[in-house]
Amino acid sequence: MFKTTVQNLLDQALAEREDLFLIEFSISGDNKIKVVIDGDNGVLVEDCIFVSRAIEHNLDREVNDFSLDVMSAGATAPLTHKRQYKKNINRALKLKTDSEQIEGTLTSATDSKVVLEWKVREPKPIGKGKITVNKQASIAYEDIVEAKVMIKF
C-alpha cells in the first residue's frame, strides 16, 4: 500500500515534468525511499527538490515513518534508459555487448538501436605503413550489456 502511494506520487510528479524520467525507484523494508532520476537536459538540484517535495509533502509521517533520497543518475553510472542515449549523442561511450567492447562517439540513438563511430589505424592494403579507417557499429539496445559515458577532461 505504501509503495503504491509513493509510486503514484512519483508518477504524478514526472507527468508534470516531462523532461525528467525515472532511472531507479525502490523502498527498503524500513521505508527508506530511493529515487534516481535523469532528465533530457540533465538534472539540477531544483529538479531533485521538486520530486522530493511532490512525494514528501503528500505523505503523513504519523502514518508511515520514512526517509527519502532523490538523486540524479551519476555521470559515471551506466546508461539504463533509452532517453539517456539520446541526450548523450556526440559524446564518447564505452559500450559492452556479449561479444565485444567498443569505445566510440555515439552518433545516433533511435527507439531500437544506437550507432557508434570511431577511428582505427590499420595496415595499408598494399605496401607498408598504416592508414586511418573510420569504423561504425549499429547495436540494438537488447544487445547492450553495459554502456557508460566516457568523461574527458
TrEMBL record:
Q: Does the keyword Cytoplasm apply?
A: yes
Keywords tagged on the record: Cytoplasm, Ribosome biogenesis
The record's section on InterPro entries has: Ribosome_maturation_RimP, RimP_N, RimP_N_sf
Organism superkingdom = Bacteria
Location in the cell reads: Cytoplasm
Note the HAMAP family from the entry: RimP (MF_01077)
Q: Which family does it belong to?
A: Belongs to the RimP family.
Report what the protein is called: Ribosome maturation factor RimP
What is the source species? Answer: Hyunsoonleella aestuarii
